[in-house]
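One record is kept unedited as follows:
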Amino acid sequence: MFSEQLPVRNSNPVLPFKGLKFGIFPPHSSAIDMIKYNLIRGISALALGLGLSSGVLAQAFEGIIEFSKTTGPVVTVYKYYVKGDHVRIEEISARGEVQGIMLVDMRDKSVTALSPERKLFMDVPNMRLPKDVDTKVEKSGEMKDIAGYKCEKWVVKSGAEDRVITYWVAADEFNFFVPMLETLNRKDEQAVFFLEIPEAKGVFPMLGVEQKMDGAEVSRLEVSKVIKGVQKPQLFEIPAGFNKFERN
């Protein structure tokens, strides 16, 4: 499959992937920082690794999760397609079109960005060290229904970071989520704070609200739909006819 994919070289590394934001998944590091920032700027958001074997994931969640990220007046819609060690992340435009795609392989710890419009793909390297933060975690036991799930309120605070993030988490063998966050290695608080929570395996935040310590809201990640079902393996592969984008 890859033998027929010819490298595409361009002196302007940003242009072929211009417009792809991936609001909640910025990759990591340097002249490629601009590409990576444009590719996955701004969740999952939810947004939102462990090296689990296929046997452990046999009963894990498989299906589609639709959610949105709100930052100020900007609202962006995303979809996760989940199957075993693989997650496909789609950013959806206001017209309902797929604007950009990321393929996350938790077993290989790799991320590949796709441009459907230009039929290009690019490996997204991860050279950034994980962010270390001092947090306090409170699992309240308070419950409410979101997207068809009973969710528990978990609060993570950091005075040093001037942040309080409230997650409403559902437990349904969402074993992919923590490994996905570790593979993406994002630096935004919604992801970093969630990784600070002990015993978070198998849960997924159906709602995440990021605030400053004074209560001002910074961002909101909210699930609108969860669909369980078998996903086609082809969703997690680089499509035929896509060429590899090479930076000069």
Observations:
- The helical segments are 33-40, 177-184, 189-194.
- The CA atoms of residues 207 and 222 lie 4 Å apart.
- The chain has two domains: 2-129+229-247, 136-220.
